[in-house]
Write a structure and sequence with these properties.
Layout lengths: L2 H14 L7 H7 L4 H12 L3 H19 L4 H7 L5 H12 L3 H5 L25 E6 L2 E11 L4 H15 L2 H8 L7 E7 L7 E9 L9 E5 L2 E7 L6 H17 L10 E4 L7 E6 L1
Antiparallel strand pairs: 1-6, 2-4, 2-5, 3-4, 3-7, 6-8, 7-8
Length: about 280
Amino acid sequence: MNWIESLQTAIQYMEDHLLEDMTIEQISAKVHLSPFNFQRTFALLTDVTIAEYIRRRRLTLAANELLQSDYKIIDLAHRYGYDTPESFSKAFRRQHGITPSEARKNTTSVKSYNRLVIQLSLKGAEPMNYKIVEQAGFSLVGIKKSFSYVDGEHLSGIPNMWQEAYTSGTEDRLFHLNNGVIKGLLGVCVDQNEIQEKQMEYWIATTYDGEVPEGLSTLMIPSSKWSVFEVEGPLPASMQSLWKQIISEWFPSNPYEHAGIPELEVYPGPNHPPQIWIPIK
């Protein structure tokens, strides 16, 4: 099952169980992906987290019932997973801009977030520059932080982490420490779900061979075959666009699977394009 098929299966499962308690672990198990990889892929392809998608769909259905039925608001609150009418009303206002009571009067419009539909389209006309690299295991040194990947905390946390690394001089320090097999700075996502549920670890690092410098941590990357893509265009939009293209076009068109170790975003420095390194098998 490729990632597009996985997404279709997951969306159907979520729609079939919208009124039930669902966890990312349950949904990802249906498509045989780790919770981390599934959540990350879903967010990349849809620009919304799984939790936010479920919230939007439930509140869309709740609005429909308010307009078309005489259910009490307190009953609808419990039906759609809210403990109190107050928490339901707060979430409802945040999505629709009005309260449930105002929506029931049917004098103001509500917002409808429709079910995601995966549509096939002709793609692949735009060339993708990549090469296949065999690389023995190597070590990184750098800084790391843990983020929740459930509600998209990492989407704002990671850019802030890079900004802090720049202003503190950590970026320059790592750049000058670089003496390993990949030149420049690396951004690395590491799944921590087996250690701490719903957590990922992000590294700003560089390849380095030697004693670990004070104040930094080290990470070993196993030997692997890698597909290396060049990023073209202004960041960060070009980086996100290439990630989507890799998942939606490159993997379905090539005989490779993800090797299950961390991917790398590589920033070689001035006058050299960034790269995305995908471990493959």
